[in-house]
Amino acid sequence: MNLTEFPAHVPLAVQTRGDMVESVHFGSLVALNANGETLVTRGDPGARIYPRSALKPLMAVAMLRAGLDIENEHLALASASHSGAASHQRVATEILTDAGLAPKDLRNSPDLPYGVAEREQWLRDGHGATALAQNCSGKHAALLATCVVNGWPLESYLDPAHPLMALIRDTVAELTGQELTEISTDGCGTEVFALSLTGMARAFRTLVTAVPGTPERRVADAMRAHPDMVAGENRDVSVLMNTVPGLLAKDGFEGIQVIAMADGGAVGLKISDGGDRARMPAAVPALVALGVEPALLGRFNQLTVLGGGQPVGSLEGIPY
Q1: Is the whole model's pTM more than 0.90, yes or no?
Q2: What is the CA radius of gyration of the chain?
Q3: Distance (Å, rounded) from C-alpha 257 to C-alpha 276?
Q4: Which of 54, 120, 189, 198 is deepest in the core (most CB within 10 A)?
Q5: Which of 252, 270, 249 is nearest to 260 (CA)?
Q6: Are 193 and 47 in contact (CB under 8 A)?
Q7: 3-state class of 311 per DSSP?
Q8: pLDDT tens digit string along 169-193?
């Protein structure tokens, strides 16, 4: 491990308080135009990063290729980092039940609901951490259902030697156009692959431009049809998909955001320190460069900074 070489990140977002810059968020970004050509780069979008949960839609493509056949709402949750609301846990349970399985079969790490309101309600109701409430339970339910379809072992579905994991690796490499040279383990127990932001933007572009009915397009269409399954009520990813027609978006832990437009334009970005608050403001200038009407994006940028309960500054993406 080399701890002396770092990606060449640059400022992507800034927070002001009064007349001063209070904080600067560094990161890297790439935007591809509708033809897949590089339109904007900031920082070092070719550096390898772990896309974390932004990989889930690509994993869902692999599952469909392996014969998984689920309805769109279920497929959206399989691609999600959901908030753990009752609706999310219901759909995850349905995926399992339809495959003859139950929540006890899940092997993802137990956790409280990810959404703040959902977590607070869950705790008020006297619940603790469970695999079903954890934000990756939809993905894990779909992984298990895929194993059932193919007669593959269930208990070892997270083992790197499992045939489903091998298929996922091949699919991710194909969609991103990159060799998987570094592999580790994500928070929920599945493999996570080091890829570039350019590779991830390219993969999401493939999802939205694929022929209707293909696994790639089915994933994109399911997520866009059920954005609240992909994240949750009032979560920025879901709100963005509800706001901009045809847009596909998925976030990931450690400051990851990947977006594709209906026409094939795409964005991949990472906030360098993994902080979440700058993720969406940093994406806004790239979306404007891709032709999104700025008025649609106001709620995701120039976020209000308070002092004594009054607006005194803002957090916003640095314009190009």
Answers
A1: yes
A2: 19
A3: 10
A4: 54
A5: 249
A6: no
A7: strand
A8: 999 999 999 999 999 999 999 999 9
